[in-house]
């Protein structure tokens, strides 16, 4: 099906472990984004990518790594998970940096214990 | 102070009521989004507007650029409208999408 798919939907991991959240989109949008959503905060941008092999930091990039070897995939890696990274993560894609067509994935609920 | 403020934070309405959610922002913007997030669900873009008014079904979004204010109206509200409604603006000093913290709407039958 066309759209944007995140996996897994739910993940529990231990402090210090590496975990990768996957994001796949079928629209061939050039821009992709990773956000985290926490109680009391709006969605906050972690990283974004303007095209394959082009990534840039957002508002809260520390502790995260991204890559974009293919246009359709934009994985987010937590190199050494911390409890403060417990959150709901949303991937989004769009045709521009303004995200004027804001297509979001279903979210991944990550718990770090 | 957040650059995007929404009010109210929580809203409970009876089915059929007219609902208004407000969004005020303090930065210069080129676009404003209204998003809908159902409990445990993903986020759906409802509107993107830069001036005036847009309507889609029972939803109406307005923006006043001079007053830096937008409203989302829901006419003839229904329990399926229960969700978090998020205002987001594109702009500010760093030209990024800035999100409000959302308004949790519960429509009771």
In short:
The complex is a heterodimer of chains A (113) and B (109). Chain A has 113 residues and is mainly β.
Structure description:
The complex is a heterodimer of chains A (113) and B (109). Chain A is mainly beta and 113 residues long. Chain A has strands at 4-7, 10-13, 19-25, 31-37, 44-51, 54-57, 64-66, 76-78, 87-94, 103-104, 108-112. Chain B is mainly β and 109 residues long. Chain B is 0% helix and 62% strand. In chain B, a hairpin with a 2-residue loop joins β6 and β7. Chain B starts with a strand and ends with a strand. Classes of the chains: A mainly beta (113), B mainly beta (109).
Salient structural properties:
heterodimer; A: 113 residues; mainly beta; seven-stranded mixed β-sheet; four-stranded antiparallel β-sheet; 49% strand; B: 109 residues; five-stranded antiparallel β-sheet
Compute the average pLDDT of chain B.
92
Class from helix and strand fractions of chain B: mainly beta
Radius of gyration of chain B: 13 Å
Helix content of chain B: under 10%
Please write the string of helix (H) and strand (E) elements of chain B: EEEEEEEEEEE
**Can you count the helices of chain B?**
0
How would you describe the shape of chain A? globular
Q: List unreliable stretches of 5+ residues of chain B.
A: none
Rough shape of chain B? globular
Distance between the termini of chain B: 36 Å
The low-pLDDT segments of chain A are none
How far is the first residue's CA from the last residue's CA of chain A? 34 Å
Strand % of chain A is over 45%
Mean pLDDT of chain A: 91
* Fraction of residues in β-strands of chain B: over 45%
- What does the largest sheet of chain A look like? 7 strands, mixed
- Biggest interface and which pair forms it? A-B, 21 and 23 residues
User: In sequence order, what are the helices and strands of chain A, one letter per element?
Assistant: EEEEEEEEEEE
